[in-house]
Write a structure and sequence with these properties.
The complex is a heterodimer of chains A (about 280) and B (about 600). With about 280 residues, chain A is mostly helical. In chain A, about 80% of the residues lie in helices and about 0% in strands. The longest helix of chain A has about 35 residues, at about 55-85. Chain B has a nine-stranded mixed sheet with strand order 22-21-23-24-29-28-25-26-27, with helices on both faces. Chain B has a six-stranded mixed sheet with strand order 6-7-8-3-9-10, sandwiched between helices. Chain B has a five-stranded antiparallel sheet with strand order 13-12-11-14-20. In chain B, helix 2 (about 100-110) crosses helix 3, helix 3 crosses helix 4 (about 145-155) and helix 4 packs parallel to helix 5. The longest helix of chain B has 19 residues, at about 520-535. Classes of the chains: A mainly alpha (about 280), B alpha/beta (about 600).
């Protein structure tokens, strides 16, 4: 034990680790464990029945699919937004910068209702899209739009500081060495920002999987078509099927955990490549 | 302007009147420079002197507002950095952290599509050159600072650039590694014979590396020369004090030689014939005494150098190889005043002594000593100090606080003295108690004309007239009314412009009626003036040729621009008072520095009618 205690200016290793353990247990681990215990009161057969219900499987595909798509969209456009905020100074930049955080602060239901209003058949954008034969509301497209809105600040806010830190000297160096602008971006800037972009992607993705409020308004919730897994859990709860809800929750938990862990590992690998042996 | 001279092929880097402005203030101000093949050139200057901006301009990382850059005879002013074929080394290494050492070094080759085998061979050669063999697969973060900078040097050389540019490459390293890397870089540079410009603020580094040093201050390249030359015979106060320590004293140039205080310290100076004239004119000059050229003894008789005066040891500090002393000159020799602006230091000399000297004469604080000097160098700068002339002390104090005067004196590291002359501007009053020294300063206004006459009668050669309201000058106009005063005006202008971040323009004004016939000669005069300014005084300036009445033209020029300064060479004071009297009255207006010489070889104008 003595070895883990390093002398630092601020005392309190024991205290901080104690609090960490306590709070993580109280707010994260114990509720999750309770859910797993609840679900384990089912038999394997019952559990598999919930798991393999076609309606449930359809909802997994939808939830993970749209979350992934939204996170990818955000990675591209969030990067561009971050780029323009960091690299250029234009009138209204500060205002735009503040606007990025709006989805954080807005109740998600409000975002959902606003999006539905805009994209509905008689809404501003909905009208135009309908003329082109594209329906957004009550389809997977609508869900993707909602998740994109919700996840965007995660990408922008993680990429922004990383981009700001890319030294201009690196770009200058590459240029004097004969690199074109494209090469400078692709070989120098992008790899440097990649870890932060991955973090943003992961957070947006995770947020998308758990998102409920903004989606249910725009999704229309048609079984097998536009029903997301969190909604199914709520439906089960409303029917007092707590065990079934817990089982669905467990499966989401497992899948999310697996995906986030793999992204984190990927990132750790990347970081090791960058910062290994730093003293 | 058309090319007058073809660029010699042995010049690797040629800069022609480079100017770069930020928000209208020139940060690089009319810099011209030639670096020859295989030369190691060091640009030395304090931070903010514009040296890094100039280096970045050569690499193309910063655009220039004016001027031309040629690399090996190829004009690259408009060429993008990736096509300039330069190697650039940054202070913070700027290595690509996500790439191995090998990938970093091969980067330039990879973007040029060089084949892998060839790349590897070149990489190995470069790693051997910077003594990092076998480090290929390391990541930059696994290397020490010194090693990272070696990689950066290798990377900058990979594509066989024509020139190597280094921006404070040792800035982030500690002393020992710095020296090691310095040696490596010198060896690499010698081996590859690549023309190199290195930027630093460290004079020791400059001495250790440079074939030639260029000293920059306020965007101007002040002086260029071999290290030992610049150290022994600087032309400017800035270079004298920036390259090592220097005691600057105000001395008098007399027909007999140099006098420091009451002591004649040198009887003959070997100066080129064209400067003899200035020698004959008695005036104040700035003398430089290096601390190691000063010798101390118990009494005057045991000194084996020129006696300067008696002094008292104030402080002694031991710094290893040398002993540093501060010696205060005692009252009797106070006239030997330091040129330092700080009144506290008026009579204090910095002295260094070797171990050998220390053993021969151990000294303690408070001890009285005889001070001698082995070598004195007189700076060729024409502006030695400033003397404010006013009728009352309130007026004098106001003038003394004038921002331009304060700026000039601080930057020149010189002093401002005050002369209260109740009779100033009145004819027939007694001579001032002290001989005129340095530049006389008076306030613009209704009395300025009479005051100017008064000063001229007493032998003033340079008079600065300050207007009440003043905006810092961004433009300095230079004009002279006759060829006799050209040399002196140029010298004064060069001295002022070293200390003011402004752009210089020489106006040649020819009478209207001659415009066609005199065009060729007018043009030639311009070019002559420009090349003389450049060659003799190191001053880069623009030139403009105008036709018309000089007074009217200048008046119009001054009215159009709010911030500027005029340096005017005058041959005939009477004519000047008739045509240019408005110059003395203007407020708000431009500061005017008048340079009076009646004939090229002689003293300032004394005769007044």
């Amino acid at each position: 034990m003595a070895d883990t205690r390093q002398h630092t200016v601020l005392p309190g290793f024991g205290l901080t680790v104690g609090y960490t353990t306590f709070f993580l247990s109280a707010v994260v681990l114990i509720p999750l464990a309770a859910m797993v215990i609840k679900a384990s009161s089912m038999s394997i057969g019952q559990f598999m029945a919930v798991l393999l219900d076609p309606r449930v499987i359809a909802s997994y595909k939808l939830t993970f699919g749209t979350s992934l798509l939204a996170a990818l969209i955000n990675s591209v456009f969030g990067f561009i937004i971050a780029w323009s905020l960091v690299r250029y100074d234009f009138p209204g930049r500060k205002f735009l910068d503040a606007l990025i955080d709006m989805p954080f602060a807005l109740p998600t239901a409000v975002s959902g209702i606003a999006l539905t209003a805009v994209f509905a058949q008689d809404g501003w954008l909905g009208q135009q899209l309908a003329r082109m034969g594209i329906q957004v509301v009550y389809t997977w497209l609508g869900i993707t739009v909602a998740l994109t809105l919700i996840g965007m600040p995660f990408v922008v806010r993680s990429v922004q500081p990383a981009l700001a830190e890319v030294q201009r000297d690196l770009e200058d160096a590459a240029e004097t060495l004969g690199a074109t602008r494209f090469t400078v971006f692709w070989r120098i800037i992008f790899p440097t920002v990649l870890p932060a972009l991955l973090t943003g992607f992961t957070m947006a993705f995770a947020r998308g999987i758990g998102e409920y409020g903004s989606v249910i308004f725009i999704a229309g919730n048609l079984p097998m078509k536009t029903e997301i897994t969190p909604l199914l859990i709520v439906i089960k709860l409303e029917q007092y099927d707590y065990v079934g809800a817990a089982a669905l929750g467990c499966i989401m938990l497992g899948m999310s955990f697996f995906m986030l862990l793999s992204i984190n590992l990927l990132q750790a690998w990347g970081r090791r490549r960058l910062f290994v042996g730093k003293r | 302007m058309p090319d007058l001279l073809p660029v010699p092929t042995s010049m690797s880097i040629t800069l022609d009147q480079i100017t770069k402005r930020y928000q209208n203030t020139p940060v690089v101000n009319d810099v011209s420079l030639e670096v020859s093949d295989g030369e190691f050139f060091v640009l030395l200057g304090a931070s903010g002197s514009g040296k890094s901006t100039l280096l970045r301009a050569i690499a193309g990382l910063t655009g220039v507002d004016h001027g031309r850059i040629s690399l090996h005879g190829r004009d690259v002013t408009q060429v993008s950095p990736r096509k300039r074929e330069v190697g650039f080394v940054f202070q913070n290494y700027a290595l690509f952290k996500h790439m191995s050492v090998a990938d970093n070094i091969e980067f330039a080759l990879r973007v040029r599509g060089v084949k892998s085998a060839e790349r590897r061979a070149r990489r190995q050669e470069l790693l051997r050159l910077v003594a990092l063999e076998g480090m290929d697969d390391r990541l930059p973060t696994q290397l020490s600072g010194g090693q990272q900078q070696r990689v950066a040097v290798a990377r900058a050389l990979a594509h066989k650039p024509q020139v190597l540019l280094m921006d404070e490459p040792f800035g982030a390293l500690d002393a020992k590694i710095r020296e090691e890397l310095r040696r490596t870089i010198r060896e690499v540079q010698r081996e590859l014979k690549i023309s190199t410009i290195l930027v630093t603020h460290d004079q020791e580094e400059a001495f250790a590396l440079a074939d030639r040093i260029g000293v920059m201050n306020l965007g101007r390249l002040l002086e260029v020369g071999r290290p030992e030359e610049l150290y022994a015979r600087p032309a400017t106060r800035f270079v004298a004090t920036f390259l090592g320590a220097a005691n600057l004293l105000l001395a008098r140039q007399t027909a007999q030689g140099i006098r420091v205080g009451a002591t004649p310290v040198s009887t003959m100076l070997d100066k080129p014939a064209n400067q003899r004239a200035e020698l004959r004119r008695e005036h104040e000059v700035v003398a430089m005494l290096r601390p190691e050229e000063i010798s101390l003894a118990v009494e005057r008789e045991s000194l084996n150098s020129i006696y300067l005066g008696a002094g008292k040891v104030e402080t002694i500090s031991f710094t290893g190889a040398f002993e540093r002393l501060r010696v205060r000159m005692v009252e009797a020799d106070k006239a030997a005043v330091s040129a330092d602006a700080d009144a506290e230091n008026l009579a204090i000399l910095d002295v260094t002594r070797t171990q050998h000297e220390q053993r021969q004469l151990p000294l303690s604080v408070g001890q009285s000593v005889a001070v001698g000097v082995r070598r004195i160098h007189v700076l060729p700068t024409p502006l030695s100090s400033y003397s404010v002339y006013a009728v009352t002390s309130t007026e004098a104090d106001a003038l003394k606080q004038h921002p331009l005067l304060v700026d000039l004196a601080t930057r020149m590291k010189t002093r401002i003295t005050t002369q209260i002359e109740p009779g100033l501007g009145q004819a027939g009053t007694a001579r001032p108690q002290q001989p005129l020294a340095g530049v006389a300063v008076i306030a613009a206004g209704a009395d300025a004309g009479a005051q100017l006459d008064w000063l001229l009668q007493r032998g003033a050669a340079e008079v600065l007239i300050l207007p009440g309201q003043y905006t810092p000058a961004t433009r300095v106009l230079i004009h002279w009314t006759g060829e006799e005063v050209r040399r002196a005006t140029l010298a004064v202008a060069a001295s002022v412009l070293r200390h003011v971040p402004a752009e210089a323009t020489y106006l040649n004004i020819l009478p209207e009626e001659e415009s066609d016939a005199s065009k060729p000669s007018g043009m030639r005069e311009l070019l002559d003036a420009r090349s003389e300014a450049q060659a003799v005084h190191g001053l880069e300036m623009r030139t403009e040729l105008h036709y018309g009445d000089a007074a009217a033209l200048l008046q119009r020029e001054l009215a159009e621009h709010t911030s500027g300064m005029l340096i005017l060479g005058v041959t005939d004071p009477v004519d000047f008072r008739q045509r240019f009297d408005w110059l003395l009255q203007q407020s708000p207006g431009w500061p005017v520095l008048l340079v009076f010489r009646s004939e090229e070889t002689s003293a300032p104008v004394r005769k007044m009618t």
